[in-house]
């Protein structure tokens, strides 16, 4: 036998049948779904989750987030650390403060089903890179930085049409106690991302204006809504808190539901209030928040209309948060909320569609 | 549904591709969605490998999908000094294929029965190729009789374009082990052919 056995085996290599396109798409969807279902370090809105899942091909970072200040009054160089006074928690009970509830005087928006809710905001959230150890035992360090964006989002008022998200990255900032990694300057999610509509999302997860308008207008009813269904999270209370944030963030909640929601949030165990919480634009409002992983996270409300002004995160437990107490690690401001008749012309075309996992079920979106 | 490639999703903005797989895997640590880029690059190649080794297309499709899911979960342990992730993916796929022993055996039996190449191309075919065709049933039987680790290595070397070094990476063994294992495997095959042809 003078033929090399390896060559003989190579010579009988069978042809591979073509990779079925549908099977290939399904495999990729499973991978994308797996990448999108990780546990968030900080609350992650439904919108963000969806945008992240979609953005696979584009590299929209769906890393976790916490917001920090972006207002001109707070502007600092990338290399400096943002530190604020520790929050003074109100002695009033949450229920007491929240009981002042909103009877909004301002002109309320009332988008028609065929219109879009447009929200412009500025955000600062923490981006967390994980500790990596390779097979040789070499480690590359855990990283943190605060990434900042200007965002505008358009979402269908009745949730039946795709929306769009425009992101402009701003200079990153130091996450106090952590050097800024090079990767902070290489974010690639600038630009326009289509936000597809998923087929038949569970009703309780819908946050479009038309759906919100049908929600209860009393605190008890709204509280029950926040505790409905499997919303993930470590506890039902955490999930209810996250659900409230998801309803408010980059969105418009009708006045009656807004008041109910505001009161309902105050009944979530662990939630309390602080007066004069400042958002990323320097506006002061009522902070309603809870502590998670050593960071106090607040939703900041306009004291008269109870609209969401923004969010902020401040380190209160240095050891747990691995950052000095008082560090501002999240700050956002919703700068404008308006109604648009149509999507901007920059909105990307629909594509093949993707699948995401909602409520434990894979649903396709387009 | 309108069919545009996924890459059109972001409209005007297309991210630059990282220069190598390791960079992409590193990015996926902070941004898991980036990992889908690895699928785009290598899914077809891994599928071909699985489809050659397994009897039914569905199993090959499952192995391919599972390979990337396993890789995604293990990505933190990827050796970022290795720019080419294919050996790693082939290694995972090989492990998964080993879990489908019956499908593998059916594949090799089918290979043994496979008709020789059509005569039209006969003139161009090398003498070795003709020999291989003649030996096909016995070769397939010899492959069936190998130990799983031997078959994995032999088919990685013979049916993919991995070098010995990369095959060693795929199987997580030193390249010296690859050489000695291949040498033993060749001897086994030679003896099998001598006694069966």
Automatic annotation (TrEMBL), chain A:
<keyword id="KW-1133">Transmembrane helix</keyword>
<protein>
    <recommendedName>
        <fullName>CU044_5270 family protein</fullName>
    </recommendedName>
</protein>
<dbReference type="InterPro" id="IPR047789">
    <property type="entry name" value="CU044_5270-like"/>
</dbReference>
<keyword id="KW-0812">Transmembrane</keyword>
<feature type="transmembrane region" description="Helical">
    <location>
        <begin position="46"/>
        <end position="66"/>
    </location>
</feature>
<keyword id="KW-0472">Membrane</keyword>
TrEMBL record, chain B:
<dbReference type="Pfam" id="PF08281">
    <property type="entry name" value="Sigma70_r4_2"/>
</dbReference>
<keyword id="KW-0805">Transcription regulation</keyword>
<dbReference type="InterPro" id="IPR036388">
    <property type="entry name" value="WH-like_DNA-bd_sf"/>
</dbReference>
<keyword id="KW-0240">DNA-directed RNA polymerase</keyword>
<dbReference type="InterPro" id="IPR013324">
    <property type="entry name" value="RNA_pol_sigma_r3/r4-like"/>
</dbReference>
<keyword id="KW-0731">Sigma factor</keyword>
<dbReference type="GO" id="GO:0003677">
    <property type="term" value="F:DNA binding"/>
</dbReference>
<dbReference type="InterPro" id="IPR039425">
    <property type="entry name" value="RNA_pol_sigma-70-like"/>
</dbReference>
<dbReference type="InterPro" id="IPR014284">
    <property type="entry name" value="RNA_pol_sigma-70_dom"/>
</dbReference>
<protein>
    <submittedName>
        <fullName>DNA-directed RNA polymerase sigma-70 factor</fullName>
    </submittedName>
</protein>
<dbReference type="InterPro" id="IPR013249">
    <property type="entry name" value="RNA_pol_sigma70_r4_t2"/>
</dbReference>
<feature type="region of interest" description="Disordered">
    <location>
        <begin position="1"/>
        <end position="21"/>
    </location>
</feature>
<feature type="domain" description="RNA polymerase sigma factor 70 region 4 type 2">
    <location>
        <begin position="138"/>
        <end position="189"/>
    </location>
</feature>
<comment type="similarity">
    <text>Belongs to the sigma-70 factor family. ECF subfamily.</text>
</comment>
<dbReference type="GO" id="GO:0000428">
    <property type="term" value="C:DNA-directed RNA polymerase complex"/>
</dbReference>
<dbReference type="Pfam" id="PF04542">
    <property type="entry name" value="Sigma70_r2"/>
</dbReference>
<feature type="domain" description="RNA polymerase sigma-70 region 2">
    <location>
        <begin position="38"/>
        <end position="106"/>
    </location>
</feature>
<dbReference type="InterPro" id="IPR007627">
    <property type="entry name" value="RNA_pol_sigma70_r2"/>
</dbReference>
<keyword id="KW-0804">Transcription</keyword>
<dbReference type="GO" id="GO:0016987">
    <property type="term" value="F:sigma factor activity"/>
</dbReference>
<dbReference type="GO" id="GO:0006352">
    <property type="term" value="P:DNA-templated transcription initiation"/>
</dbReference>
<dbReference type="InterPro" id="IPR013325">
    <property type="entry name" value="RNA_pol_sigma_r2"/>
</dbReference>
């Amino acid at each position: 036998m003078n033929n090399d056995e390896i060559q003989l085996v190579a010579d009988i290599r069978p042809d591979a049948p073509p990779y079925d396109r549908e099977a290939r798409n399904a495999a990729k969807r499973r991978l994308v779904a797996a990448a999108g279902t990780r546990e968030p370090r900080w609350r992650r809105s439904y919108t963000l989750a969806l945008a992240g899942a979609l953005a696979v091909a584009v590299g929209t970072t769906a890393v976790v987030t916490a917001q920090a200040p972006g207002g001109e009054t707070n502007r600092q160089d990338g290399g400096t650390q943002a530190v604020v006074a520790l929050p003074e928690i109100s002695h009033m009970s949450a229920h007491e403060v929240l009981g002042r509830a909103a009877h909004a005087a301002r002109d309320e928006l009332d988008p028609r089903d065929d219109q879009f809710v447009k929200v412009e905001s500025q955000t600062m959230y923490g981006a967390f890179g994980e500790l990596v150890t390779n097979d040789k035992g070499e480690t590359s360090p855990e990283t943190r930085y605060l990434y900042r964006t200007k965002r505008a989002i358009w979402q269908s008022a009745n949730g039946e049409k795709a929306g769009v998200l425009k992101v402009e990255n701003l200079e990153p900032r130091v996450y106090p106690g952590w050097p800024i990694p090079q990767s902070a300057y290489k974010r690639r999610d600038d630009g326009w991302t289509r936000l597809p509509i998923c087929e038949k999302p569970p009703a309780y997860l819908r946050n479009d204006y038309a759906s919100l308008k049908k929600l209860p207008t009393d605190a008890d009813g709204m509280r029950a809504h926040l505790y409905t269904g499997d919303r993930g999270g470590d506890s039902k209370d955490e999930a209810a808190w996250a659900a409230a944030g998801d309803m408010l963030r980059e969105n418009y909640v009708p006045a009656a539901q807004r008041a109910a929601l505001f009161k309902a949030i105050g009944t979530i165990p662990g939630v309390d209030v602080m007066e004069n919480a400042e958002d990323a634009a320097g506006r002061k409002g009522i902070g309603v928040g809870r502590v998670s992983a050593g960071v106090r996270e607040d939703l900041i409300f306009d004291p008269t209309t109870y609209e969401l002004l923004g969010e902020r995160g401040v380190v209160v437990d240095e050891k747990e948060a691995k950052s000095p107490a008082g560090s501002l690690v999240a700050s956002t401001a919703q700068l404008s909320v308006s109604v648009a008749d149509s999507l901007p012309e920059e909105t990307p075309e629909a594509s093949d569609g993707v699948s995401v996992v909602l409520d434990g079920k894979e649903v396709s979106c387009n | 549904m309108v069919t545009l490639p996924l890459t059109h999703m972001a409209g005007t903005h297309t991210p630059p591709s990282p220069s190598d797989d390791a960079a992409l895997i590193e990015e996926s640590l902070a941004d898991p969605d980036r990992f889908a880029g690895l699928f785009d690059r290598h899914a077809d190649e891994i599928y071909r490998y699985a489809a050659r080794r397994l009897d039914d297309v569905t199993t090959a499709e499952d192995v391919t999908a599972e390979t990337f899911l396993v890789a995604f979960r293990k990505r933190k342990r990827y050796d970022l000094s290795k720019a080419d992730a294919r050996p790693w993916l082939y290694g995972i796929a090989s492990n998964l294929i080993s879990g489908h022993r019956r499908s593998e055996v059916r594949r090799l039996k089918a290979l043994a029965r496979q008709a020789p190449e059509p005569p039209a191309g006969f003139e161009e075919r090398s003498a070795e190729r003709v020999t291989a065709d003649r030996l096909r049933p016995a070769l397939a039987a010899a492959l069936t009789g190998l130990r799983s680790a031997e078959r994995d290595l032999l088919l990685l070397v013979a049916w993919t374009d991995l070098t010995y070094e990369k095959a060693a990476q795929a199987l997580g063994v030193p390249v010296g082990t690859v050489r000695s294992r291949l040498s033993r495997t060749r001897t086994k095959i030679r003896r099998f052919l001598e006694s069966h042809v």
